[in-house]
Each structure stands twice: as C-alpha cells, then as structure tokens.
Amino acid sequence: MARAAVGNSPKAVTTRSRCPSGISKTNNDQENCIMSANISLIGNLGKEPETKITDNGTFIANFSIASNTFRNTAEGRVEKTDWFRVTAFGKQAETIARYVRKGHRLYIQGRLTFNPWLDKNSSPQSGAEIVLQEFQFLTGKQDGDGGADVVVPQADMPTEVQQAAAY
Length: 167
Description:
Blueprint: E1 2-4, E2 12-18, E3 34-45, E4 50-53, E5 59-73, E6 76-89, H1 90-99, E7 105-118, E8 124-137, H2 159-165
C-alpha cells in the first residue's frame, strides 16, 4: 500500500491492490487485481447537502467539504483551503441529509474518481469526486450553540458507523 501526504496536510491518498480470492497478493499478474485510489480527510461542509432519489429508489446526497492546510513562509503562516466534492448513496446519504448541515465537521473516507463533462463551450473537462465509503461525525456547528456535537440515534447510522462506535 502506497501512502502520500503533501506538506502539513491531514489528507492522504492511499492506493490499494485487492486481489480476488484465490490469487496470491505476491502474484505478479497485476491484471487480475483490482486497483483503487482512496482518500481520507477531515473538513467542514460548505453548504447544505443536495439530495435526490433515482428512478430505482436510491437516495443520493452530494456535498462539498473544505479542508484547511497551513504552512509557514517567510511572510508568516499561510492557510490554504481545498474543496472536495463528495457523493453518498443509500443509507449513508439519508443520514448525511438528515443530520449534517453547513459548517459541520466530518471525517470522510472514500474512493477518488474523475468524472468528465463538457463545459459551456463544449470543451471536455474533468473533475475529481469522492464516492463516500465511510464517515464519522466530529463536531457540528448548531444554531446558536457555538459548536456542539451532532448526536445521531444509532438506529439512523449506517452499519459501518454503528460498528465503529461499538469499539
């Protein structure tokens, strides 16, 4: 597993090779293994999640997370904000839509993808998106309380979040 982090950034991109059962991980036959680019980050929601339900009934939530990094320069400490687009599906999307609001802080982990589109001039473009795999509520900025924790009933949490909370 390769791990890369830039500067003082809390973000890390992990590339994993997962081989189907029965194929040794030491086997040099890479075409039989699955590669994925995973990303983990901590950040605050920039605006309310956007939700929709597909024709087949799948709940989808899209949201953006801002993650700040700092570095020291000759002029002093410089802050940089990176924005990440995240898409959640199913029960995770329902939980995000129900409990997460602008300003709330989340830890997320997901699969990094790049989606092509055509801009207004019909020029091809591509943008990064994180497909949510796991998340954890950190703190939330509730109306008027200055940052209380978000409390989610366990029955409303996705299974993997319930399992993590049990440890």
